[in-house]
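2024-03-11 09:14:02 INFO receiving multi-entity request
2024-03-11 09:14:02 INFO entity count = three
2024-03-11 09:14:03 INFO echoing inputs for audit
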Amino acid sequence: MTRRTPAARPARWTRDDFARPADELAPALLGRLLVRLLPGGERLAGRIVETEAYLGEEDLASHSARGRRSPRNEAMYGPPGLAYVFFTYGMHHCFNAVCGRLGEPAAVLIRALEPIEGADLMRALRDSHSRRRSPIPETDLASGPARLCQALDINRSHNGLDLARAPDLFVESPAAIDPPPRVAVGPRIGVAYAGAWAAAPLRWWLEGNPHVSR
DNA sequence: ATGACGATTTACT
DNA sequence: GTAAATCGTCATA
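2024-03-11 09:21:47 INFO inference complete, emitting structure
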């Protein structure tokens, strides 16, 4: 009788994998792969090395704080597994995975990736967004929420996409998680406006990984 | 209709 | 370290 070893091959995440609280999902995503298939068939993949949890209506740092619901953040109120992509600062995109239960506006912001597949293509995509002369070092390719969106060509067209079903954007557990990762926790970035919530330890990253932002 | 500002990045002093 | 870039969104009127 053939027995498969579940962890021996890559496994795509299903809706159930996203259906948990943001502060549970955020650390659980570390070490997983965010995979993007470009229209030409090229496969880009990055190991998730930094995440932030946005808990819901009570979280004053969240776009859904105090029950704010609008066309922009509508995806946050959808089923777990949707992509929430928003445009900010007049020029940047950020990518989240919606989580929790349907109707609860929780999400996890992906803040940084370590390029695993297609790094050269990622560099070309990043170059197309800047006028930099020297080649972008690999540690700068996806080490920030807007950088990773450039590197994987993620934009508003992906907002509301179902990560559990979309053919071109999904999360995958790698065949093996190399070294047992040491995880660090700290306050979220860029949410100083959120009062006491700004200090909450809701950001997780792989300790010592050079692809983490800043 | 108007204005303030942002879950950022980059360049420059 | 500080500041510019740049525009969609939302709150207020």
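2024-03-11 09:21:48 INFO post-check: The radius of gyration of chain A is 17 Å.
2024-03-11 09:21:48 INFO post-check: The first strand of chain A starts at residue 11 and ends at 12.
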